[in-house]
Amino acid sequence: MRKKINPWLAGNIPLLVAVALPAALFLSVLVYFAGWAITFSFTDLETIGRKSVNWDWVGLKNYIRLFTRQGFLQSLWVTVIFTFFSAVIGQTIIGFLLAVALRGKRGLLKTTVEVSIMLGWLLPDIVAAFLWSASASQTGLINRVIIEPLGFAPINFMNDYALVVVIIANTWKGSAWSYLLFSAALDAVPKEIIEAAKVDGTTPIQRLWKVVIPMIRPHIATNMLFITIWTFTYFPLIYALTGGGPGNDTNVLAIFLYQTSFDVHRLGYGSAISVAMLLIVGALSIFYLRLLKEPK
Amino acid sequence: MKKPTVLALLPSLALAGSLMPSVAMADVSIMYPEFITALVKPGIEAYEANTGIKVNAVKMPTVGYEQRVAVDLAAGTAPDIVVMDSFMVAELASANYLHPLDAQLKGWDQYKYYIKSLLSVASYDDKVYALPTDTDVRMLWYDKSVMKKAGIALPWSPKSWDDVLAASEKIKAQGVPYSFVLPAGTKRAEATTMQGVYMALLGADTPKDDRNRLRNRKEGKWIGDSPALRRTLELYRQVYVEKQLTPASINYETNVDAFVRTAITKHQVGILASGSWEFSCIWDCNGVNLPSVEERNAVLGWAPWPGMGRADTLKTTNISGGWTIGMAQSAKDKKEAFKLLTTIFDHGNFSEWTVAEHRMGVRTDITESPEYTQDAYLAKATKLAENTTSRDTFPGYNVVTQLIQQATGNILDGMSVDDAITEYKESLIDEFGEDQVIVYK
């Protein structure tokens, strides 16, 4: 059935056009940026030098480079590990467990936990990077307070376990979002249904698995959608914390893209990387959006 | 079909704008990295006092500064006057982002003092696009107390790479965490290429046919594989993988320079591959609360970088760079912009900064002044400049330098020298074509 235009708006065509203009402008800006990246991914455009002025079309060369040259596939693998463990596993599980544990609670404990995880979320990425760098270095807090008092030799976590450190740092930083979303979702689960399940003799695990999780499934998918997109393209914390190193240990796609575009100044190749990232994140988004649909 | 580049670069500008503070244009504007404040700021103040024109100055952190310069100039939004590393000048000038200064320089009475050979780093196609602030030399700095603790005789004067590695191992045995800091990886950017790779490379084979360089300058081709490149990467492998003289992570610290310099003041570094600026910069590049020369000499010493020790290699190596100040092509009032430039480089201000910061002078009215010639540190460091060379600032260098930085990063990752060289060579061929890359057996 065709949707009818609001009669008040239908009688004010100039107004209708006026209010539609900002939306059209906004959409065209979005399309322009994506279109720019796609177009120049087929060129050898550079930021500086002669190729910044006299660039050429190079066909699929940049896309072939993604698979034949060092960098993209390695960074993709690092990004997948980083996203899976820090977002899909870390942030989701910690956020969910905290939301379940604190559900219905009041008082100092809940306030303390909420303030603590919110602080991590609100702290600027650069400050967080300095804090984690100072804590995980060979002379950092973790060694001074935990490792050395236990009689072990200090460990340079930033050297030996850099990817683990950035995964933990991002889990710490991003769990607040999942917690807030799951808290709201759990609050929306009617208490009567939980009570009914109790009366039916279910265990807490059964209630969680068979009653609560199916009811908040759309929220889980929404959470996964957002944190996957954010984490897959995340840049500042990792760049400030490790710069992609040591070696290429933490060289996620966002850093590889930045290095290619602005260190090496190859904007054409950088555009191809960004288009590839767009496609990957788009595919993941479609997967999550399908999860959002109610089962038939 | 070619489209206007400024239009093409708009998204880059938007990205840069979202990451960094924007430059609100005034009558005259300038952008500079924080380490050079002591030269630029008094120049700006003098210009404002002389002309009554407000200067919109943007001071930036050194990390990421090169990227900011490139993006702003490409987008046509750069300030009128831009401080930049000399290696960028040719690339920026070839894209017509910089304004040639020759015509204006002819009318400036102090231009005649610039040492002509040093202007080459700021020139392109026989035109001068910027004025150098200083030149530099590179050396191995060492902590005297750490050396004594390790039982190494002072003054330390290594004759080969083996001497350097042996000293570093002795230092490591004393529990010093960073016994030999050799810049590596992409985060160190030009520091990796200049303070690390090139200083080793120059001493890794005979200079004949440029076998000890990244480029054969006579043939105009990049060198994709050579014994010198392999020996240089092997040195990296020895330092970071085989002997583990320093954790690789030091090259990826949040603020690498600050971290390294703080570590030095805490006596956690044995040997540091760096340059002549460190005589100030280890404490403060802008000279604030700088210890006296005697106090600094008591803490630190330096030795020339030795060649690897073969009969046909250089005894010591050196390569010089330096920073420059130029004018953006987009500068609206080029007359006023040039006035700001020359006020910064006015003899009084420039001379005071050069001597106070122990920088290597680029003008004879400064280098021949009593204050300069009587500076013992500068006199000794200047001797290194007698046998120096400069980097291969030909179009394409920006890619080559990043690829060689990546090659050192690959070594840190545990990749073999063979594989790292193969990767480097194939990347060069991919970038420039097979006919532009040569191999030395």
TrEMBL record, chain A:
Cellular location(s): Cell membrane
InterPro entries attached to this UniProt entry: MetI-like, MetI-like_sf
Predominant place of localization: membrane
GO BP annotations listed: transmembrane transport
Stretches that traverse the bilayer: 12-38, 76-101, 113-132, 152-172, 220-241, 267-289
GO CC aspect terms: plasma membrane
CDD domains: TM_PBP2
UniProt xrefs under Pfam families: BPD_transp_1
Membrane-protein topology: Multi-pass membrane protein
Domain ABC transmembrane type-1: from-to ranges: 77-290
Keyword terms: Cell membrane, Membrane, Sugar transport, Transmembrane, Transmembrane helix, Transport
Record family assignment: Belongs to the binding-protein-dependent transport system permease family.
Name of the protein described by the UniProt record: Multiple sugar transport system permease protein
Organism listed in the record: Marinomonas polaris DSM 16579
Upper lineage: Bacteria, Pseudomonadati, Pseudomonadota, Gammaproteobacteria, Oceanospirillales
UniProtKB/TrEMBL annotation, chain B:
Subcellular location: Periplasm
Name of a matching Pfam family: SBP_bac_1
Official protein name in the record: Multiple sugar transport system substrate-binding protein
Chief location of this protein within or outside the cell: periplasm
Domain of life: Bacteria
Signal peptide: 1-26
Family: Belongs to the bacterial solute-binding protein 1 family.
Keywords attached to this entry: Signal, Sugar transport, Transport
Cited InterPro entries: Bact_solute-bd_prot1, SBP
PANTHER family the record matches: ARABINOSE-BINDING PROTEIN-RELATED, BLR3389 PROTEIN
GO CC field: periplasmic space
Keyword Signal assigned: yes
Organism of origin: Marinomonas polaris DSM 16579
